[in-house]
Specification:
flat; mainly alpha; Four Helix Bundle (Hemerythrin (Met), subunit A); 283 residues
């Protein structure tokens, strides 16, 4: 297996998103940002996320072969053995937990483990191939990153991190269901019961809209509860309105084109919320 294939196993884009999520939790409670702490926190979260990603590649190698988007993944093509993949995943998770415990505290290490456990055991092994709620429950994995980032600073400041974790929990279905509309035929071919496969694109679009209403409402809670100020509230409201606008268009026109636009819009929406937390707290 080549170095490039090993990096592909680790899903670096997802690892970066998880790291940014943890950094947001850190920034939400820290009085003054420490660049070294940020780098170490990023390392910890990348290691944990990469461990889960590698396991996912190994476990899903059979269905990955059946989908066009994933058929060329290293494990799907046989470039690496399951033993190698499982060993790498274990090594990455242990390394992440050791660094988390030694540099920060055991709570950070625990959240890192719980995030990996939800993604691996609850989502990948248990629910992904069995029920359309897979991404709803499995989406909790990303929420632990926010809590880990906050715990790296102060384990007693839990209210704002918990609300932000709720936002992450609700963001995942809206984001992923839009992608699932794009990949409906792939998932149907592989026998994976993602929501569009089970209920179709039209009903999935309505589910995205309902979920996004809850998402935008939850994103305003930090402002409404006085945990963050008007800068955050304004950015959350405006970006939420844009996201809901895309959702409404998808409901009226549930095509792959608008599913793609909804998927694309969900990423900058979350990034704007992350930036808003930092701007409101530190500038």
């Amino acid at each position: 297996m080549t170095f490039r294939q090993i990096i592909e196993l680790m899903k670096p884009r997802i690892a970066l998103m998880i790291a940014l999520t943890a950094i947001t939790g850190y920034g939400a409670v820290v009085p003054k940002v420490d660049p070294i702490a940020l780098m170490l926190l990023t390392l910890v979260m990348v290691l944990g996320s990469a461990a889960s990603a590698v396991f996912n590649h190994v476990w899903d190698r059979d269905i990955d072969r059946l989908m066009r988007r994933t058929s060329q993944r290293p494990m799907a093509t046989g470039a690496g053995t399951p033993a190698l993949g499982f060993g790498l995943a274990l090594a990455l998770m242990v390394a992440g937990m050791v660094v988390a415990h030694s540099v920060f505290n055991w709570v950070v290490a625990l959240h890192l483990f719980l995030g990996g456990f939800v993604y691996v055991a609850i989502y990948t092994i248990w629910l992904k191939r069995k029920h359309w709620t897979n991404i709803i429950i499995g989406g909790a994995a990303g929420s632990f990153a926010v809590l880990a980032g906050a715990a790296a600073v102060d384990q007693t400041q839990w209210m704002l991190p918990m609300v932000l974790a709720l936002v992450l929990f609700l963001w995942t279905p809206s984001h992923f269901w839009a992608l699932a509309i794009l990949l409906t035929e792939d998932y149907r071919q592989a026998g994976v019961p993602m929501l569009p496969v089970v209920v179709g694109s039209q009903r999935t679009a309505w589910c995205i809209l309902v979920n996004s209403v809850l998402l935008v409402a939850s994103s305003l809670l930090p402002w409404g509860m006085g945990l963050l100020g008007n800068v955050y509230g304004g950015i959350a409201a405006l970006s939420g309105a844009v996201l809901l606008g895309f959702n409404l268009v998808l409901v009226s026109n549930p095509t792959r084109r608008w599913a793609g636009w909804n998927f694309a819009a969900s990423m900058p929406y979350l990034l704007l919320l992350f930036i808003a937390v930092f701007v409101d707290k530190h500038w």
